[in-house]
Amino acid sequence: MPLPRAGALLAAVILALYAGVAAVVLTAPYGDPFNVVARLLALWGFLALAIAAIMTPFLREIMKVFGRPFLAVHHTFAAIGLLLPTLHPVTLAIGAMNPAIFIPIFSPWGRFWALAGRPALYLLYIAFAGVLFRKYIPKYWRWAHGLMYVVLLFAVVHGNLIGTDFQEPIIWVLFNALFALVVAAFVLKRWQRMRKKGAPGRSDISRA
Where are the transmembrane segments (predicted)? Predict the structure, then answer.
């Protein structure tokens, strides 16, 4: 089924973001090819996860824009956001022939944040598992899945501290703006949930 006009336009904007990120990475001074690929995977993965998070308060709007169920669209970006960040350290480990890349470092504090992408990968899988096992942990799966916001926080701090491409103004502005939108979406989603829970109370008061 073809996309509605608004969906095609939004899809074109998203593809343009991916193409723009690729252009910045691939036109930078050429280095180790494994490093170049790993950087691109990380940035594209963050972009997918950020888009998946930003759309969460807009269930009806996403359905109208794309003409598809919200979860189908959300899970598409989430799947990309799971795969690409996984391939990021795999590519670095192959290039450096060093599996220590997968080991989180918790001290000193500054080094933990510089290498926060390492624990972020494990939190990403815990967040993903929260969705898979939601039927078995109905009271806790949202908490587990909510770790996705921590993943994005760790990733953007990691990028700002040691990310090669974050030295480019376009990448710095784009990805920090995306994280700001993620935070805004998080707040809006919680506000919507609180409003929904409070709705019966308000109606009761109005009837009284």
Answer: 37-59, 80-106, 112-133, 140-158, 170-188
Q: Which residue has the tokens 């829970």?
A: 197
pLDDT along the chain (208 residues), means of 10: 83 96 89 91 97 94 91 94 96 92 94 96 95 90 94 97 94 98 96 82 40
- Which parts of 67-168 fold into alpha helices (H)? 70-96, 109-114, 117-132, 141-145, 147-162
Q: Is residue 140 part of a domain?
A: yes
What is the full DSSP assignment across 25-84? HHTSPP--HHHHHHHHHHHHHHHHHHHHHHTTT-HHHHHHHHSS-HHHHHHHHHHHHHHH
What pLDDT does residue 201 have? 52
Number of domains composing the chain: 1
The per-residue pLDDT for 200 is: 60
Non-local (6+) Cβ contacts of 119 within 8 A are: 104, 154
CATH number at residue 94: 1.20.120
180 within domain boundaries = yes
- Show Cβ contacts of residue 163 under 8 Å, excluding neighbours closer than 6 positions: 39, 42, 171
Domain housing 45: 5-195
Q: Is residue 203, in this structure, part of any structural domain at all?
A: no
